[in-house]
Amino acid sequence: MRYPIKYERQELFDVNMIITMIFKIDKEFSETAIKDAFDKAVGVNEILNTAIKIEEDGSAFYEGPVEPGSSITVTEGDFETIRKAEEKKRFHLEEGEYIRAFAKSEGGKTRIMLLIHHMAGDGESSLYFIEDFLTFLSGGEKQFKKIRTVETKPFVSPKLKAFLSNAVSKSYNKKWCDKVFTFEDMQKAYDNYWKDKTTDIEIEIIEKDEMDEILSECRKVGAKFTAYLTAKLIKDDAGVKEIGYAVNYRHDDNRSMGNQASGISIKHKYNGSKSIYENAVAIQKEFLKRIEEDKEASYVLDFMSSLKPTLVDAVNLIPSGLYDDKVADSLAGIMGFKGKTSDYSVTNLTKADIPSVYGDFKIEELMFAGPVVSYCKNVISVVTCNNKTVIATHRIKYL
Known about the structure:
Number of helices: 11
Low-confidence stretches: none
Mean pLDDT: 95
Structural class: alpha+beta
Number of strands: 15
Strand content: 25-35%
Distance between the termini: 43 Å
Order of helices and strands: EEHEEEHEEHHHEHHEEHHHHEEEEE
């Protein structure tokens, strides 16, 4: 199998592309059972049985089948300490390493941490892997799932927007030197970027009663929770804020692993003379307008795919300080990879689209944190499970 890497190219050379999923189940398992279930879950997802190949001309592919490089380790260590150590280590995508998982026993229960590279999938994919893993852990079976990545819808940008984006991509493609980057370059980028950085994750939990009250007020004014959360985030900020939103791009509700997400962004200035819910309504309207203009987030995918793949790599390497090129540096500034980056990026998985009960055990807790991508300062990740809404705020911290 050889599957071209196109729309997910921008995740390939970014040095901070790890999705974190931490969950607790109310039963203890042997190391053998945990590792066996993990290996089976990896085995039924085609993308986790591939390795990434970069050709001499810069084109890149998922190739397989190969011996999977993903692994799970049973540990007694602190997950936050482990996470901070592991985020600095490059995933060996060229050897099929997409997931590093850790498991520990806690008083008759089991806590699992999955560190999943974005090249293996998005937030929804990560949930589906948890479902596969826990199904096997409970003695069940799952069917093999073919690799699925973004499949774009036909899209025509508004004339002015199309003219500007086409002009940008054509201009930068023409000026680009076509330098091809390697996994050795990726390693150097990791080493340089993480030598003075770590990341912090702050957790907020909204219990069911409080969430019900918030949702009731949102329904009264015609806003969604994500808009309310955005208003809450920027309430005490001065000036206009740019907020990006991840958008689920699965057109057929498939449950395969693979990056099937896109995004949109809006700009909003919090109006202190209005309530948080009134601000949420304004944000909701801006969101819906942008969704319509970009045809459900097709625009950003079309633009990124119009750039030469190796130029996309170069833009992603700029924040690491590894590569210095006027063309890539200028484009990185336009795209928000340096200088004026987005203030917030919000991903709301809503109610986790997986069962909470598996045989004689269930998921008690679930937390999700997206990567601190180069083009955003504050990454906000939300998931609801077992009547608890968990909000994780992920930020870079300089040492």
